[in-house]
Amino acid sequence: MNRSTIDLWVGIFVALGLGAIVFLSMKVGNLVSFKGDEGYHLEAQFDNIGGLKVRAPVKSAGVVVGRVAQIKLDPKTYEAVAVLNIEPSYKFSKDTIGSILTSGLLGEQYVSLDPGGDTTYLKDGDRLAKTQSAVVLEKLLSQFLFNKAAEGGDKK
Amino acid sequence: MDEVARLLRRLGAGVIDRIWRLGYASRFMAMVLRDSTMAFRRFSLTMRELYFAGVLSLVIVGVSGLFVGMVLALQGFETLQNFGAAEAVGVLVATSLVKELGPVVAGLLFASRAGSAITAEIGLMKTTEQLSAMEMMAVNPIARVVAPRFWAGVISMPLLAAIFSVMGVFGGWIVAVKLLGVDNGTFWSQMQAQIDFRLGIVNGIIKSAVFGVAITAIAVFEGYDAPPTAEGVASATTRTVVASALAVLALDFVLTVFMFRGTGL
User: Fold this and answer.
1) Which residue from A66, A106, B135, B146 has the highest number of Cβ atoms inside 10 Å of its Cβ?
2) How many other C-beta atoms lie within 10 A of the C-beta of residue A13?
3) Mean pLDDT over all residues of chain B?
4) Could you report the per-residue pLDDT of A8-31, keeping only the tens digit for each?
5) How many domains does chain B have?
6) Quick check: B3 and B11 in contact, CB under 8 A?
7) Average pLDDT, whole number, for chain A?
8) B161 φ, ψ to 5°?
9) What's the average model confidence in pLDDT over B40-55?
10) Is A3's Cβ below 8 Å from some Cβ in B?
11) What's the CA angle centered on B218, arms B214 and B221, to 5 degrees?
């Protein structure tokens, strides 16, 4: 085996290896579609965000239109503010309602945007007027038990 | 009483011997790093070692990756189906390959395929006094023989681990999509949604690079330190495989603790 053949094989090996790393980054890790700060930001205020996490999808009619960029607590109202990073090609009307839903019974939580009929669109940095908080299972259960107890009390 | 004294003496001698070897290994690694300019200035030396360590390991790494991915998909599918989440089989295969199995199994294969060969080669060079002959000719054997092998191993390992993971994902894709009928789009999209670039893929590459350094460092040291006899080379080769396999598994635990603890993944 002379040197130039070795060079060729090593070249093939390195190209395969680098190709594998690129494949992992693009196809498996999905580096491409995570574009960071492209797109515009909307803010949504929620009483309770439940288990919503940063990078959770933002969906409208089930289509992913953006991701949750940041979650913070408003120090004055003690409400959670989720900053949504929306792809620039999607525009939403002023009276869009944001709600936190769960995909499936045990799935991850996401923000759903339901546009209304307003003809003006939300701009970068705008805050959604109406929101619906996440359903917290414990609260739901305690409410249910409380109602049951109240019913029991009425019968007496 | 004599028995106890002899036992203690033997224990002490063993411990001192181990510590002495550890110190010698550290000094040896420092020498390798100091003398490794030649491995890059005369890159054809490293190129030849890249061929032996990397290119010739391609087939075993690729085929093993393919089968590991296929088995993972098969087993994962059976279990996930009970929970109605058979589509998540892509996530399962890719996560376990990229974060754990890729670096670890490729490391174990690399240790037994290339590490043992490096030890045997350097050990035999020492036994046949080629290393001494080089020193006589004012050629530094560490710069000429050891450093190129070390760097070739360090370069090959991350590439081999990446190839292993890709072949595994491909094998998983064949079983899940082609044989078991998981939807092609869901397979990829779930995988892409769940695997984070920095946490998953970059950490996997860092892991494999660390394993590469550990395996080749052990291999070149055991070869250089081998007693210059046939049995000496044989036991050094065995020690290389055993020590680097243990090192890979132990390092994997330590790295995983540092990388993934508290990240929720």
Assistant:
1) B146
2) 23
3) 89
4) 888 888 899 999 888 888 777 666
5) 1
6) no
7) 82
8) -65, -40
9) 86
10) yes
11) 140
Residue contact A17–B51, C-beta within 8 A: no
Helix axes B2-34, B203-225, angle to 10 degrees: 110
Q: Per the CB < 8 Å rule, is A25 touching B197?
A: yes
Residue B104: CB atoms within 10 A of its CB come to: 21
Q: In chain B, pLDDT over 70 holds for what percent of residues?
A: 98
What DSSP element (H or E) covers B249? helix B230-260
CA distance B201 to chain A (A): 7
Domain boundaries, chain A: 1-32, 40-137
A122: confidence class by pLDDT, cuts 50, 70, 90: confident
For residue B24, is it within any domain?
no
Alpha-carbon gap, residue B240 to B116, rounded angstroms:
6
Please answer whether residues B91 and B195 qualify as being in contact, where contact means their C-beta atoms are separated by less than 8 angstroms.
Answer: yes
- Least confident span in A109-123, B153-167, B210-224: A109-123
Taking the C-alpha atoms of residue B244 and residue B58, their distance in angstroms, rounded to an integer, is 19
Interface residue B163 vs chain A (CB under 8 A) = yes
Q: Which residues of B touch A10 (CB under 8 A)?
A: 47, 50-51, 54-55
Min Cα–Cα distance to chain A from B19, Å: 38
On the CB side of B71, how many CA atoms lie within 13 Å of its CA? Answer: 9
Q: How many cross-chain Cβ pairs, A to B, lie less than 8 Å apart?
A: 84
Identify the closest residue of chain B to A67 by CA–CA distance. B193
Per-residue confidence (pLDDT) for residue B123, from 0 to 100:
93
Whether the Cβ atoms of residue A71 and residue A82 lie closer than 8 Å to each other: yes
Is A42 in a helix, a strand, or coil?
strand
Q: Is residue B13 part of a domain?
A: no
Does residue B251 or residue A136 have the better pLDDT? B251
Report helix, strand or coil for A125.
Answer: coil
- Using the predicted structure, report yes or no on whether residue B233 has a pLDDT greater than 80: yes
Q: Which amino acid is at A47?
A: D
Residue B57's domain comprises 35-260
- Per residue in A26-39, pLDDT (tens digit) is 777 666 554 555 78
B180 CB within 8 Å of a chain A CB? no
Asked, for residue B265, whether it belongs to a domain, the answer is no
B172 falls within a domain: yes
